[in-house]
Amino acid sequence: MTQEITSSDSQSRLLAEAEALFAREFGDVTPDGAWWAPGRVNIVGEHTDYNGGYVLPIALPTGTVAVARRRDDDLVRLVSEGKRVEVRLGDISREASLGWASYAAGVGWAAARDGLDVPGLDIAFAADVPRGAGLSSSASLSCSTASAWNDLAGWGLERPATARLGRLAENEIAGAPTGTMDQMASVLCEAGSALRLETLTNDTEQVPFDLDSAGLVLLVVNSHAPHELVDGAYGERRRSCEEAADLLGIERGHLCSEVDGRDVSAVDARLEELPDVPRRRARHVITDSARVLAVHEALGAGVTRESAPAVGRVLSASHASMRDDFEITVPAVDTLAAALEDGGAYGARMTGGGFGGCVIALIDADRVDDAVELAKQRAAKGGFAEPEPFVALASEGAKRLK
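== Galactokinase ==
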């Protein structure tokens, strides 16, 4: 049977792990509280968030718990799975090469840059978002940290501002050139809903996404093909989008703003004027932003068996666009997407930044096991790692646990 995880189970287990780790690492000092932030699955709208486009993520039931205590000095002590990092607030920089801890310590750097009073912290983390799977394990780390620091320092930041600190930590200290979707999803998503986010304005709408009542599931299959955003390929895609914007006379970061609603025909002729690579990169982000609106329209008041085929077609079209125009899929995920469709899914696509990670599929609940079995057979035949499936439930965003 395919695994189904709930937020309450994940949070309870991770809280116990993080509290035990805090006690081992920091002695008898009592922590001030515990905070949770989830990973995310993006239903559609890939690489659109740094181009001013639309995205449609849900929060996962898996995430990161941060157990923290405010300090009276400027020292930040962070521990996760036995890995410990200590750094003074004034020493936090990209050049400090803090590794995994840069996603957390970078929040303090971002807050100080914004002129906030930043105290030191002791933090112990426990997490269960699969790493390297394109499910934003890094955003769950940075946003759990931002939520803890916000409360303990008394900054009083609203949720979008908390998410912004997490993004700045990833962009400026960890060196991951992500857009705003991952952190906004981790902080703003609600249980039973997808988050329609217009990244140019940060306007949001909670879209009903209760698949269970319709006999459907959003199946996530981890290809176990490596996924890494802090590398040249992701950055090259972003630079190609900026090049396309420059050639079209559009402000960088606003490439998707040329589309009015779902009608992309108005920019087709202009895209033909571009060289091959920037043309195809721009075509993907513009059409994928429009696909978010198409899914939103198909969902209406919620997901039904009647709307599932239309949503599925959009998912499959998104995968083809990522494969052919944006060139961020790999053979392992292409194989899984095709296998899941052949196994009965309404549609399937890679999710996340690309070059590995997970495939999602919208499918009837009673067809999941057969589709998964076919995907495993195809992966084995292709010489790929055995895929790992689970059912994604639209879950709650960041919060304080205790």
